[in-house]
Amino acid sequence: xxxxxxxxxxxxxxxxxxxxxxxxxxxxxxxxxxxxxxxxxxxxxxxxxxxxxxxxxxxxxxxxxxxxxxxxxxxxxxxxxxxxxxxxxxxxxxxxxxxxxxxxxxxxxxxxxxxxxxxxxxxxxxxxxxxxxxxxxxxxxxxxxxxxxxxxxxxxxxxxxxxxxxxxxxxxxxxxxxxxxxxxxxxxxxxxxxxxxxxxxxxxxxxxxxxxxxxxxxxxxxxxxxxxxxxxxxxxxxxxxxxxxxxxxxxxxxxxxxxxxxxxxxxxxxxxxxxxxxxxxxxxxxxxxxxxxxxxxxxxxxxxxxxxxxxxxxxxxx
Length: 318
Description:
Blueprint: H1 2-7, E1 12-15, E2 19-26, E3 38-45, H2 47-56, E4 63-65, E5 67-69, H3 72-83, E6 92-94, E7 99-105, E8 111-117, H4 124-138, E9 141-145, H5 150-162, E10 167-170, H6 174-177, H7 181-184, E11 189-193, H8 194-201, H9 210-224, E12 228-232, E13 238-242, E14 247-250, H10 263-276, H11 281-296
Parallel strand pairs: 1-4, 1-9, 2-7, 5-6, 9-10, 10-11, 11-12
Antiparallel strand pairs: 2-3, 7-8, 12-13, 13-14
């Protein structure tokens, strides 16, 4: 068994939690202070889980390091990821391994409120202690939620440094991420939205036009010594900045929005794939923008199937 695992393709390593997303959609105008008739759906979610499936849907065979419950739902999550060609050998089954995200959307597909319950990921420390060297020596790059437990993050970043692997940081909770600015400096690229970037730099970007935002973001990235950063702007697309002072703007794709959930994760996945496999920042943002648009037009949390060539990427051997 050990010999078999050593031969497996690792691809991009993705660390993070799995959630069950419970999403409500009103049939008519949403009223926060009243009863709303509508539909309620349950889907597999979680930032990292969405990202790893997004990558797998571009046929790039990623590896997911996570935990799930010891029940039928946990098994369903694992089997779905396997069908999408995600390497699930390092997912551990524990009590309370699944998180829950409860969300309400309005008729325009915009999130109006949510509550989340995060699972305990400490079991992953054992995975890294036992197999971290093997995983990191064979992976193409690493994706983490930067607001995970600090002890676990320290293990991940140490292994990434040891094997010279780039780490891409997704932000789920900027309040926690603010406490990890030292780690942000060692990531290959940070991706967050306009509000989160405002929290990170104590700046009101909403009062600026695109040119002012791009110039200001560039200045902050250089001063903070962040290698690369992308700030998403919803319908306005995204702006990016690099430590060398270069910055730019990537326009959003026009699409009829049904549900915004998962679009940011798809954008991140596209950026990480692009940068991992040789694209520059503008090209990576273009990939992310295309994947995000494919999610906005559905009630799914992940992008549909693409061939790597459709995104300007090369197919990887299985």
